[in-house]
Design the sequence.
RNA sequence: GGAGAGGUGGCAGAGUGGUCGAAUGUACCUGACUCGAAAUCAGGCGUGAGCGCAAGUUCACCGUGGGUUCGAAUCCCACCCUCUCCGCCA
C-alpha cells in the first residue's frame, strides 16, 4: 500500500509515476473520494463529540440524582443523523481502502521505464555456457531416460503440472535444498525458519497477493467466511512474522531463510512451459527474506541478490542478472533483479530467482515497524528473493551437467551430500 | 470429537452499564538524592486516524464482527483464538 499522505499531497504525481509501470491510477477518483471522506469524517467526529459530551452529562446528573429529561431530549435528536454519517463514513473508508489495496508500488528511480520484459536491462553475466559435442537433451528426456522423472505417474495421481521424482534424482532435489539452506545460514547470516504452508487471508493481504491475485492461489475451505490459502512462496508466511510487530532497533536487520513447497494455480499461463518441470503447480523453493531499516534497504537488495548468486556460482551454473523494467515488476516491488540460469536445451536464460525490495509497501499493509530510541514507530522495509527455486535448479543441473550417454554428472559442491555419487545413471 | 475455563495496555492484573483509554503492580524514560550505582522519592510513559502553521484538539480502539442503549471493556448474538481434562492420532 502506498502512503496515503503522499497521495493526498500530490495524486497527479503518483499517477505519473505509476503510468511507468502501465498502471492507470485514477487521480480524479481518489481526490473525489478523499474530499468526501474529509467532510464526512469531520462532521461525524463533531457529532460524536457532541453525543459523548451529552451522554457524560447524563451520567453526572444521574449520579447526583437530578433530572435528565432535557438532556435526553437533546441527544435524542442526534441519533439518526449520526447513524447516517457513521454509515457513510464506513462506506467511504472501505471504498478508499479497497482502492488503495489495488494500487501497485512505485518503481524506484533507478528502475528503467518500459512496458514488458523486452525492456529489462542486463546487469551482468557469470559463467560460460558449455558447448556440447553431442545432441543436447532437455531435462525431461534426461530424467525419464534415467527412469527417475515420471510425469505420467503425477498425472495419474493428481493431474498436469505436477511431477514425481525417484531415486538419485529425488535425492539430488532434497540435497539441493539442504545445500542452499546451509550456505545461507552458515555463510550469509540468515536464520532458518520453518513455517506453515497454509496461511490466512490477512497474511496474503500483508504481502500483496490479496485482494488482487486470488485466482493465482489455491485455497482450502474451512467455515464459510474463512478459508486458508496454500502459500505461493515462503515470502508470505516468513514476511508476515513481523506483521503487527514493533521490532526493537538492535534486532535489525532480520534475515530469514526458509525451505518450503510453493503452490500456484498458474491461471492464465495455459500452454506456456507445458513440457517438463519449469512451471509446476507445486515446487520447492528456498526463500531469503529480510526486514531492514529504510536507509539500508537498497544495500540489502544488492547483498541479498549476491547471496542468491552465490548458490549458482557454487553449482557452476552460468547465469545472467537482469534489472527488471517498470512494466515487468511484480505488484508490490519497488525494484527487482531476476537471476536467469542458462538452459542449454532451450538455448536461453530462464528465471531461477527473483529478488525484490518492497520498501515500506508490504510493511504498511502489515503494520510492520521498528522503533528507534524513544521515537515513534517507523515502517520497516521488506525484501525477499529466491535462493533458489529448487525445481528449476534441478532442471539446470540436468541440462548443464548432462553427458553423451544420457547420464548426468553431480556438481562438485553436492557430491559429499550425495554420498560420494559422481553421476546419476539409469539403474 | 466430548467437557470446562478464558481472551483488557510491553508483562502481570483490577474493572459486570455512566465522570474508564481504563485502577494497581512491574518494566521503561526523565529529574532529585549519590563520587557513582542500588534503594528511595517526584513526574512521564499505548496504537491508529482527523483537523490545525503550531500549541493543541477531536474521534476510534479492552480477541473479531454485528446488536441493545442517551451512554458498552461491562448486556445480547455470531465467529475466531488460547488454555485444562478426556478420547483419537503422525
Sequence:
Amino acid at each position: 500500500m502506498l502512503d496515503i499522505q503522499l497521495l493526498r499531497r500530490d495524486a497527479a504525481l503518483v499517477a505519473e509515476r505509476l503510468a511507468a509501470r502501465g498502471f492507470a491510477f485514477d487521480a480524479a477518483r481518489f481526490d473525489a473520494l478523499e474530499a468526501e471522506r474529509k467532510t464526512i469524517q469531520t462532521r461525524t467526529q463533531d457529532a460524536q463529540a457532541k453525543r459523548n459530551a451529552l451522554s457524560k452529562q447524563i451520567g453526572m446528573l444521574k449520579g447526583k440524582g437530578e433530572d435528565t429529561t432535557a438532556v435526553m431530549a437533546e441527544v435524542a435528536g442526534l441519533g439518526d443523523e449520526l447513524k447516517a454519517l457513521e454509515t457513510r463514513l464506513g462506506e467511504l473508508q472501505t471504498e478508499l481502502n479497497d482502492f488503495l489495496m489495488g494500487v501497485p508500488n512505485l518503481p524506484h528511480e533507478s528502475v528503467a521505464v518500459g512496458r514488458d520484459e523486452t525492456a529489462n536491462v542486463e546487469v551482468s553475466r557469470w559463467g560460460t555456457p558449455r558447448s556440447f559435442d553431442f545432441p543436447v537433451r532437455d531435462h525431461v528426456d534426461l530424467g525419464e531416460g534415467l527412469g527417475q522423472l515420471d510425469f505420467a505417474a503425477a498425472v495419474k495421481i493428481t493431474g498436469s503440472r505436477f511431477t514425481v521424482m525417484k531415486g538419485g534424482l529425488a535425492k539430488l532435489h532434497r540435497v539441493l535444498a539442504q545445500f542452499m539452506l546451509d550456505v545461507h545460514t552458515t555463510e550469509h547470516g540468515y536464520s532458518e525458519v520453518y513455517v506453515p504452508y497454509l496461511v490466512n487471508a490477512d497474511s496474503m493481504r500483508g504481502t500483496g497477493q490479496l485482494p488482487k491475485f486470488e485466482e493465482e492461489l489455491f485455497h482450502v475451505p474451512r467455515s464459510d467466511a474463512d478459508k486458508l490459502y496454500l502459500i505461493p512462496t515462503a515470502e508470505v508466511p516468513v514476511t508476515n512474522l513481523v506483521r503487527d510487530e514493533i521490532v526493537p532497533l538492535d534486532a535489525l536487520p532480520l534475515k530469514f531463510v526458509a525451505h518450503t513447497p510453493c503452490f500456484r494455480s498458474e491461471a492464465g499461463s495455459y500452454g506456456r512451459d507445458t513440457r517438463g518441470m519449469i512451471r509446476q503447480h507445486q515446487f520447492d523453493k528456498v526463500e531469503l527474506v529480510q526486514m531492514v531499516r529504510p536507509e539500508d534497504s537498497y544495500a540489502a537488495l544488492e547483498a541479498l541478490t549476491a547471496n542468491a548468486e552465490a548458490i549458482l556460482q557454487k553449482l557452476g551454473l552460468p547465469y545472467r542478472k537482469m534489472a527488471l523494467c517498470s512494466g515487468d515488476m511484480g505488484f508490490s516491488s519497488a525494484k527487482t533483479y531476476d537471476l536467469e540460469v542458462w538452459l542449454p536445451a532451450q538455448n536461453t536464460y530462464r528465471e531461477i530467482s527473483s529478488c525484490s525490495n518492497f520498501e515500506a509497501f508490504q510493511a504498511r499493509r502489515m503494520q510492520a515497524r521498528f522503533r528507534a530510541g524513544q521515537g515513534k514507530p517507523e515502517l520497516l522495509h521488506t525484501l525477499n528473493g529466491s535462493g533458489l527455486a529448487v525445481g528449476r535448479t534441478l532442471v539446470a543441473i540436468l541440462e548443464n551437467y548432462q553427458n553423451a550417454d544420457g547420464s548426468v554428472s553431480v556438481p562438485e559442491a553436492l557430491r559429499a551430500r550425495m554420498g560420494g555419487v559422481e553421476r546419476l545413471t539409469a539403474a
User: Anything to note?
Assistant: DSSP finds twelve helices and 18 strands in chain A. The first strand of chain A starts at residue 121 and ends at 126.
